[in-house]
Amino acid sequence: MDSILIVEDEDSIRSSIKKLLNGQLFETSEANSIQDALDKYDLTDFSLIISDLRLPGAPGTDLIQLAGDVPVLIMTSYASLKSAVETMRMGAVDFIPKPFDSKELLDAVRRILDNPKPAHSLKAPDLSGRGMIGSSAAMKSVFNIIQKVAQTDATVLIHGETGTGKELAASAIHNESNRYRGQLICVNCAAIPETLIEAELFGHEKGAFTGASSARKGLVTAADGGTLFLDEIGELPLEAQARLLRVLQEKEVRPIGSVKSHKVDVRLVAATHRNLKKLCEQGSFREDLFYRINVVNLDLPPLRERGKDVLEIADMLLEKQCEKLKKPHLKLAPDAIQAITTYHWPGNIRELENSLERATILCDENEQITHDLLGIDLSLVEIDEELEQRSSHTFRQTNIDPPEGLSLEDYFTRFVLEHQEAMSETELSKKLGISRKCLWERRQKLGIPRKKDA
Questions:
Q1: What is the mean pLDDT of the segment spanning 392-413?
Q2: 165 in the Ramachandran plot: left (φ > 0), alpha (ψ -120 to 50) or beta?
Q3: CB atoms within 10 A of CB 145
Q4: pLDDT score, position 77
Q5: What is the C-alpha separation between 92 and 73, in angstroms, rounded?
Q6: Residue 414's closest CA among 6, 106, 10, 12?
Q7: Strand, helix or coil at 449?
Q8: What is the pLDDT of residues 56-79, one digit of tens each?
Q9: Strand partners for 7
């Protein structure tokens, strides 16, 4: 049985976590401070230590050094997120923001105990050299799929939001495959006019149409022996889709205006941010082509779902921008770290890269990159430190012992009910580190009524 130490100064939270873990057959011990933990226990006897960041006396970060090889999971509010980020750089295995529900905590605990090494050491080393970095669970799954599918000639359909790195994933698949000596031909289907897309892909003979002054081989033929990457394949016209289907089925291509076909050996990797199945229902994408290209589906997670990967990516991009602009290596200020890890990045890695390029250009030498230089709007997620301290003090003044069986959902419910009379919905969402929409959804899920004057 795994033994877990809980270090938390709030009795209600410590009791809730203890009951939750005991219910999952974990052996637990508890302490209200680092000194209390050192007086009672030998820290190396535990499989995992869960600690709040803010504790009486020494902060929870001190446990990282004191516990040796025992992994430390840090609990923190979003207001102190920048501090939590620094703890991970110091060696904490992970952090979990407050408030959290039972599933979030249990998933984190099981993930750590199943993989006792620090998360940052679990990065797939053979793909980091291909430009793909990250240690989140979502990216480990992506790396695993890429490594497996790269050794085959199976068609891959990559799905992901704009800026998530679909072309980078296609490049990794090609470079890890046996076709790495061949060409990787990348085509953005949305960037080529509809009247030219077939000629570009499949080639044409001299005089095949007005302006065809000479014969030209297409991009499919250019990728012979290698990989053809079709980005935004959902934008491909129906006529071109029919020709592409023949290439995949018969392994041959016939240029426009030619009566002869020739064999090609091409591995297709396609990408889109659209729902191709829905496009099939609307009649704008061939259903037979969809099933032909959807052999292996690779979903790239958005940046907001990749946890602390965002900092690793930011460091890499910042170093790249400094080299490009011939500036000394700049560092991120604490408020910039908090902004980067809190912002939702709708443009994903592309938006992050542009933001860091802007900041690098505007930042003076020998100075740190601050939040204002990044040019991102945190109006919906900024945290008010004074509000957090005031509301936390109010909560502690209630001095109510948690009833038997109090869960983390119960804690969330009680917190909202006790503070909503003194706070607006915006203030509540800021205090909890979530959006107003998320607060509303949790109200609906947990059945928490809003105050009468809302």
A1: 48
A2: left
A3: 17
A4: 67
A5: 6
A6: 12
A7: coil
A8: 888 887 888 788 788 888 887 654
A9: 31, 51
CB of 41 within 8 A of CB of 31? Answer: yes
Nearest in space to 75 (alpha carbons), one of 99, 56, 58: 99
Q: Are 302 and 159 in contact (CB under 8 A)?
A: no
Amino acid residing at 218: G
Instruction: Report helix, strand or coil for 230.
Output: strand
Q: At what angle do helices 385-398 and 425-432 cross, to 10 degrees?
A: 90
Residue spans of alpha helices (H) in 305-421: 309-324, 334-342, 348-362, 371-374, 385-398, 408-419
- Residue 117, C-beta contacts closer than 8 angstroms, at least 6 positions apart: none
Helix axes 436-446, 425-432, angle to 10 degrees: 90
What is the C-alpha separation between 374 and 343, in angstroms, rounded? 11
The two tokens of residue 385 are 């430190």
On the 0-12 / 13-18 / 19+ scale of CB atoms within 10 A, 82 is buried
In angstroms, the CA 86 to CA 178 distance is 41
Specify the amino acid at residue 453.
D
* 169, pLDDT greater than 50: yes
Q: How far apart are CA 120 and CA 309, in angstroms?
A: 9
Cα angle value 132/150/175 (rounded, 5°): 55
For 208-260, what is each residue's pLDDT tens digit?
777 777 888 889 999 999 999 999 999 999 999 999 999 999 999 998 888 88
Q: Where are the beta strands (DSSP E) in 115-232?
A: 156-159, 184-188, 227-231
pTM higher than 0.70 = no
